[in-house]
């Protein structure tokens, strides 16, 4: 049975289009071609003269009169054919309009993104010019403390000042005191330290999702104020750092200034001062009360990957993908020394030993290197990992070093024997983001897809927290392990402890 390709009805006068090979009712296709000049099926050029009539026996008799039922039905069919043709044209125009609208929206979005990028670059250039061209007698000649009070930003001098004998003596004296204190503490477990059974009973006490912008989700780093454990510092993918009071559940300060995500943060142990680092190659030192940058340090020429504060509270260790580690004075802003790592590999993390005379760095080629700060020399290497080193942590006992890489394991090293004495093998797909000993060196926290707590010496797992819905980037212990805080790409800061 013949059928019209447009109306789907049996045609009275069937014709064939030589362009598409489809059959149409002659009156319907004639009207369409007269208006559009193309075949409705494939859109190719078509003339009425090209239509080929098909001879067939009419399936219905001619209507005898205009008042007969067949004639009325034919009139209704003509109206239906017109509606079918109109509907077909509307669908074609709708599809064309929709495509044009999508193209316009895409172009508008691209223009908005480009405009935002240009505005950001313009702001960065203005800030850089303001810092590089100080006026005579202005903030560039002011002491750092006065400059901070005035709300200005001090730039770090670019030349290396060197580690002087006075600085070395200061470091040595601090290390001697810390070593004696550590040996004294090492004879017994702190009385106020939470027991293993107490940590096993930990549960999620709070979850805070509103510390950073939802447009750039993810908290990348955290640190806890040693003198006031209620204050927690977080660094986010939204280019800001936030100081949060977990007891009052209020944001204390929002620190804005970095042009890229904030990947490393440190809360000064005795002062209301914080340090942040970013892939924008800068390190900023902030006054929490004023939420202002008091020192801008451009020590490196590549993304900063590691940040560690010396036990004196006066010096900062940093590492970066420019293959170098740097030692700077946070009081004057002076770069004391900058050393390229041996083997010329990008450095991925760095941390001071509790005594402050040695420190460790991780590299992109799976190496863990131990450095002597006074001599600025590489004194030991710990091979064994495969993949980029993601985190290192020295135990407060001064003897253990924990390291992690992209190989789903945590290795424990004895600094006295310079060897690996324990490996914590995790799930095959587990990506370790951060590791941290508590202040007594009794517990070890590991985070990745979840948060795991281990007891040292026995190295057994005490507790696992898997409340986060995305990768956990950082974990820290509160004083005496009374609580644990973790930060995740799910944009939440979670606090674990015992309910009271």
Q: Can you tell me about this structure?
A:
With 500 residues, the chain is an alpha+beta fold. The protein is 21% helix and 34% strand. A five-stranded mixed sheet has the order 4-13-12-11-10. A hairpin with a 4-residue loop joins strand 12 and strand 13. The longest helix is centred in the first third of the chain and has 64 residues. It starts with 13 loop residues before the first strand and ends with a strand.
The coarse overall form would be elongated
Strand content: 25-35%
Average pLDDT for all residues: 87
Give the low-confidence spans.
133-151
Short description:
By secondary structure, the protein is an alpha+beta fold.
Give the topology, please.
Blueprint: E1 14-16, E2 23-25, H1 26-36, E3 52-53, H2 69-132, H3 144-149, E4 154-155, H4 165-185, H5 196-200, E5 203-208, E6 219-224, E7 231-236, E8 240-245, E9 250-256, E10 264-267, E11 273-277, E12 283-287, E13 292-297, E14 304-309, E15 315-320, E16 324-329, E17 335-340, E18 347-352, E19 358-363, E20 368-372, E21 377-382, E22 389-394, E23 400-405, E24 409-414, E25 419-425, E26 434-437, E27 443-447, E28 451-455, E29 460-465, E30 472-477, E31 484-488, E32 493-497
């Amino acid at each position: 049975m013949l059928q019209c390709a447009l109306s789907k009805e049996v045609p009275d006068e069937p014709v064939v289009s030589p362009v598409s090979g489809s059959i149409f009712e002659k009156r319907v296709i004639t009207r369409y071609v007269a208006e559009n000049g193309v075949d409705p099926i494939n859109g190719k050029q078509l003339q009425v003269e090209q239509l080929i009539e098909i001879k067939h026996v009419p399936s219905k008799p001619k209507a005898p009169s205009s008042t007969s039922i067949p004639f009325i039905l034919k009139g209704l069919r003509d109206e239906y054919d017109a509606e079918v043709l109109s509907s077909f044209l509307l669908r074609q125009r709708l599809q064309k309009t929709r495509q044009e609208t999508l193209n316009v929206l895409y172009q508008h979005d691209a223009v908005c993104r480009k405009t935002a990028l240009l505005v950001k670059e313009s702001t960065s250039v203005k800030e850089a010019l303001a810092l590089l061209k100080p006026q005579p007698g202005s903030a560039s000649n002011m002491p750092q403390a006065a400059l901070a009070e005035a709300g200005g930003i001090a730039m770090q001098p670019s030349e290396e000042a060197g580690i002087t004998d006075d600085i070395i003596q200061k470091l040595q004296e601090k290390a001697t005191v810390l070593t004696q204190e550590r040996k004294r503490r090492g004879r017994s477990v702190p009385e106020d330290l939470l027991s293993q059974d107490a940590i096993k009973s930990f549960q999620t006490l709070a979850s805070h999702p509103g510390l950073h912008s939802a447009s750039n989700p993810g908290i990348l780093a955290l640190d806890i104020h040693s003198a006031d454990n209620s204050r927690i510092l977080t660094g986010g993918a939204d280019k800001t750092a936030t100081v949060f009071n977990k007891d009052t559940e209020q944001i204390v300060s929002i620190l804005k200034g970095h042009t890229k995500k904030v990947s490393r943060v440190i809360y000064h142990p005795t002062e209301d001062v914080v340090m942040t680092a970013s892939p924008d190659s800068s390190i900023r030192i902030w006054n929490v009360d004023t939420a202002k940058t008091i020192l801008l340090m451009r020590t490196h020429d590549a993304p900063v990957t590691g940040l560690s504060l010396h036990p004196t509270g006066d010096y900062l260790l940093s590492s970066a993908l420019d293959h170098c580690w740097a030692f700077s004075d946070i009081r004057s802003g002076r770069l004391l020394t900058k050393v390229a790592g041996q083997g010329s590999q990008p450095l991925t993390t760095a941390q001071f030993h509790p005594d402050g005379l040695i420190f460790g760095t991780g590299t992109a080629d799976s190496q863990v290197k131990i450095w002597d700060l006074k001599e600025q020399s590489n004194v030991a290497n710990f091979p064994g990992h495969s993949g980029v080193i993601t985190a290192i942590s020295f135990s407060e006992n001064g003897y253990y070093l924990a390291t992690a890489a992209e190989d789903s394991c945590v290795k424990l090293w004895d600094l006295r024997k310079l060897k690996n004495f324990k490996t914590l093998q995790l799930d095959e797909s587990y990506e370790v983001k951060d590791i941290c000993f508590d202040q007594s060196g009794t517990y070890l926290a590991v985070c990745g897809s979840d948060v795991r707590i281990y007891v040292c010496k026995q190295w057994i797992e005490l507790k696992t927290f898997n409340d986060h819905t995305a990768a956990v980037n950082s974990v820290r212990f509160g004083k005496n392990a009374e609580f644990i805080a973790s930060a995740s790409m799910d944009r939440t800061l979670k606090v674990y402890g015992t309910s009271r």
